[in-house]
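Q: Structure tokens for this one, please.
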Amino acid sequence: MLTNLVNEKIFTVSSITHHLQLLFNSDPLLHNVTVIGELSNFKYHSSGHMYFVLKDEQCQLKCVMFRGSNLGLSFEPSDGMKVKAKGDIRVYERRGEYQFYVSQMTEAGKGELFAAFEALKEKLRAEGLFRSEIKKPLPKIPRKIAVITSPTGAAIRDIISITLRRFPNIHIMVVPSQVQGNEAATQIAENIDFLNQVLPELDFIIIGRGGGSIEELWAFNEEKLARAIYASKIPIVSAVGHETDFTIADFVADLRAPTPSGAAEMTIPDKESLIKNMKLIKSKLNRSISHIYELKKQRYINVLENLKYQSPKNKILQHLQTIDDLRNRLILNMKHILDLNENILTKYREKINTLSPREVLKRGYSICLKMPERIVVKNCKQVEKDNLIEVMIRDGSISANVLGKEEIKNDW
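A: Here is the predicted structure, written as tokens:
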């Protein structure tokens, strides 16, 4: 059948693919061959099989290593790792692709790209390009931003979609650029410089692209791009690949986003949430102002009352009232004291009157005075014969001379 088809120059896909498979199988160079290259797009399938690409600077080779062959590996393969793989190159007829069926694999190093990545990373770190204190802050509510990326990629669609959903008022400038290939790093760096010169009022610039292999993301590991990011006066947001992908641009940028869509989520505020928060803050502010106003009003009233009470006029009136109170109390006290003294005086007057000589004379007694001294005679020894005396009685006095005296001795 194949002979007839060849003669007629008509072939089926299956026949051509099968013929190529026979050619690959018959070529001894493609059996038990050892290939050295760098791992890329490594995937560990749930079945246990490993799918990856071996590549160098110019070409790449699809590979598969089945579960039975990879169980004895002494290392864990990962992207960027340089390996030596041994096996057969055959055609996978179902897809019409040739691929390397690896039976053995050993680590030959981390690969030139990964080594270059680490070397540049350490160099720039030593120069201080990664320092956190030099990172420029992003505004809370941006007004104008620029996105440097491929205009046809999924990254720009995600950024625009999320940005307009979260805050439709923001102006987005899309700056087309290659994000893969030899010229990509130069174009992105030139666009950053251009925006700094022409639109310095931009709030920030997003640079990035979707996921890919280390080779596809390599533009963001170039030194020229790193230095352009560092020199930018406008804040730079790096949004390259997936969350697990890290590039030199991520370390130099002012903010690293895990994905392009994550960059929009992290940098663009949600307008509806802001409005709700503003309404909540306004409500709290109004309540607070009302509360403060009532406190101040009450304090003002209290101050007025205190001023009124403590005013000079009020104090004078209070002092006048105090003087009146003291005057009344003084009058009362004086009257009380006068009454007490008057009573005492009356008692003493009555006692004096009772004991006075005149009262004694009224009872029939008399008082003898030696003249002219008018000394009361209390005993006989005070007078002598012919002394002049005066005898005081109730209704007058009698003058007389002493004719004689007689002393009487008694016990009283």
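A few notes: The longest strand covers residues 97-109. The CA atoms of residues 42 and 77 lie 8 Å apart.
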